[in-house]
Write a structure and sequence with these properties.
heterodimer, A: alpha/beta, Rossmann fold, Alpha-Beta Plaits, 2 domains, four-stranded antiparallel β-sheet, 11 helices, elongated, B: mainly alpha, 14 helices, 0% strand
């Protein structure tokens, strides 16, 4: 993959009165990738997106998309960037087709082009057979898919989606994620998704950034993210073996220094600084212990999720 | 490019207005009241002509009150604001509440085109409404009384229509402003109604109270105090656009009106009774016209600036 930087922010900051919504954000998003901006509600994701679109002026710092300054050249930006807001709204008493036509006209497309695009896009988001129904009768899932079609009317290089899966049922979520994945994989567009639904979004993201309280904690592919977020903190292994005895515990502690083992019947939990899974498994098999369950805790999505995304304000 | 998106937005807003139930209701309301007032004026016109002479009979259709129904112009002064307010009270906050505003603003358009398009479309709807109603009412008047309007009458009527459009547009601009200041459509609708009631009814009452408090009148009041009292009341009343409108229209449609301020009897000595030519009537109400235009511009400018600086997120 060629690594052209498509979206770039430098020290992007937004203050509302005395609240800092976004705190010197430095981010690079490459052409053709799906980037997930993940964080709990109120982390500043929407504010970041609005600054990227030039709809809100940053207090400090600069954001560029494809080399254009988002504040000073916002018309260029808006020609190039499709945006699906959270809780996207359509004109309820207009049909899907009329809503898309209006968007097309605002983008200065010719009438022929508008009609062809509407047909292909409605086909693509599977709304062709309801295209002449008023949007007021649409379900949440249909509206969201129509939203995707709407952002694609201008044939954008970059697509920014704010909470695209919010309020959808599981089938709707999968449909939505497939659509989004296609935007990058088939059409080679750059996609930025903001969400607090960590598990849903991570499936399709090339890279994600964990964004909490206006700060970017870590950026990278999802499988290396835990390492970055929890660097320097102890790992916990959950181990279930047969049989559990005194010898086992001392064997485990002999693997390295500063290894704490606590047992609860057959369930052992082992705290260590380094990843000791390999030597642990070797020892267990050498001494004929039967491993029933082994899971490393403290470095994976679950932990990121429970630490940053649940209830903590 | 700039013009194109303005045109697209303008067309959409216009279509929205014309297809909306709200527009139909408002149109029905003013059509029915307008026709009723013209009908009763036409029925009573024979009597009026025999009493007051037969000049400008056609214009009297619009100014004469029938037995139980007020005149056309007083209906317009009262209900015109309702038209303007109904067209605009949710124009901006409605888009925010529906979630369409952020989608709209993320299109490659200048932000001011949104509010310009909305205001222009509203003014166009008002113009269409006023002109078609006015022409329809005039046509019915011709059929009923059988007297065609003279050139001057037509000129005066056209000016009257323009003043009416200005007057109703002012309320439209005010309702746009309220739809920006308040997040909920219901709140802005209430604020609009409050402003309407205050400016059309309560200003008149308050003006009397205030001027009587400052220049108390009793049997022994001097002419000077009486004049000051009356002038103050008039000026306070002119805070309300409906007063401006009423004064302007009465001068336009009744050429016999030679002054709209208080004058003493001795100033009338030597005056030749007669009607004013159109240009002199226009001169008389020129300050009113300027005020109406200025109020329009102030209201629109405030909403424009507010809209441009508003945060997109609700």
């Amino acid at each position: 993959m060629n690594k052209n930087v498509m979206i770039k922010t430098e020290n992007l900051t937004k203050n509302y009165d005395d609240v800092t919504a976004v705190n010197s954000l430095n981010l690079e998003i490459f052409e053709g990738e799906i980037f997930g901006l993940l964080g709990p509600n109120g982390a500043g994701k929407t504010t970041t997106i609005l600054m990227l679109l030039g709809l809100t002026e940053p207090s400090e710092g600069v954001a560029t998309i494809n080399g254009y300054n988002t504040t000073k050249e916002s018309i260029h930006i808006k020609k190039m960037v499709g945006y699906l807001p959270d809780h996207v709204g359509f004109y309820e008493d207009m049909t899907a087709r009329e809503n898309l036509r209006f968007t097309g006209r605002l983008n200065n497309l010719s009438d022929n082009e508008i009609e062809t695009r509407i047909d292909t896009l409605l086909e693509r988001v599977k709304l062709s057979d309801v295209s002449d129904r008023k949007v007021g009768t649409y379900s949440k899932g249909m509206r969201q898919r129509l939203g995707i079609a709407d952002t694609l009317m201008k044939d954008p290089k970059v697509i920014i989606l704010d909470e695209p899966t919010i309020g959808l049922d599981p089938a709707g979520i999968n449909e939505m994620l497939d659509l989004i994945a296609d935007l990058a994989r088939k059409d080679r567009r750059t996609v930025l998704i903001s969400s607090h639904q960590l598990y849903q979004i991570q499936k399709i993201c090339d890279r994600v950034g964990i964004f909490v309280k206006g700060k970017l904690l870590a950026v990278g592919p999802i499988d290396t993210l835990g390492e970055k977020v929890f660097e320097g903190q102890p790992l916990t292994l959950e181990l279930n073996v047969e049989p559990v005895d005194e010898r086992l515990i001392s064997l485990i502690q002999s693997i390295g220094e500063e290894i704490k083992v606590t047992s609860d019947q057959n369930q052992l939990s082992i705290e260590s600084i380094d990843d000791i899974r390999k030597p642990l498994l070797r020892i267990l098999s050498e001494h004929n212990y039967k491993v029933l369950f082994l899971k490393q805790r403290g470095r994976d999505l679950d932990d990121i999720y429970s630490r940053y995304f649940t209830g903590e304000e | 490019m700039n013009w194109n998106s303005l045109l697209v937005l303008y067309k959409k807003e216009l279509a929205d207005h014309l297809r909306s139930k709200r527009f139909v209701i408002v149109l029905l309301l003013i059509t029915i009241t307008g026709l009723a007032s013209i009908y009763s004026a036409a029925v009573g016109i024979r009597e009026a002509v025999s009493q007051e002479g037969n000049t400008f009979v056609f214009l009297r259709l619009f100014t004469a009150a029938g037995n139980s129904i007020p005149s056309f112009i007083s209906f317009v002064a009262l209900l015109g604001p309702l038209v303007g307010l109904a067209l605009g009270f949710d124009s901006i906050n409605g888009e925010f509440n529906k979630g369409t505003m952020s989608r709209l603003l993320s299109q490659p358009i200048h932000r001011d085109n949104v509010i310009n398009g909305k205001f222009l479309a509203g003014v166009s709807v008002i113009a269409i409404m006023v002109l078609s109603l006015g022409i329809a009412v005039g046509a019915i008047g011709i059929i009923m009384i059988g007297i065609p309007p003279t050139m001057e009458e037509i000129l005066r009527l056209l000016t009257f229509f323009i003043v009416t459009i200005l007057y109703i547009s002012l309320w439209l601009a005010l309702s746009h402003l309220f739809s920006l200041l308040f997040k909920q459509s219901a709140t802005s609708a209430l604020a609009c109604i409050a402003a309407w009631l205050f400016l059309t009814i309560f200003v008149g009452l308050l003006a009397g109270v205030i001027s009587n408090a400052i220049y108390p009148l009793d049997n022994a009041s001097t002419l000077d105090v009486q004049l000051k009292n009356s002038n103050l009341e008039l000026m306070l009343n002119r805070i309300s656009p409906s007063t401006l409108f009423s004064e302007a229209t009465i001068c336009l449609l009744n050429p016999g009106v030679r002054t709209i301020s208080t004058i003493t009897l001795d100033r009338l000595i030597g005056a030749i009774p007669g009607v004013l030519p159109f240009s002199q009537s226009l001169l008389l109400i020129w300050p009113h016209l300027v005020s109406l235009v200025a109020l329009n511009m102030i209201c629109f400018a405030v909403s424009y600036i507010y809209f441009m600086r508003q945060e997109v997120r609700a």
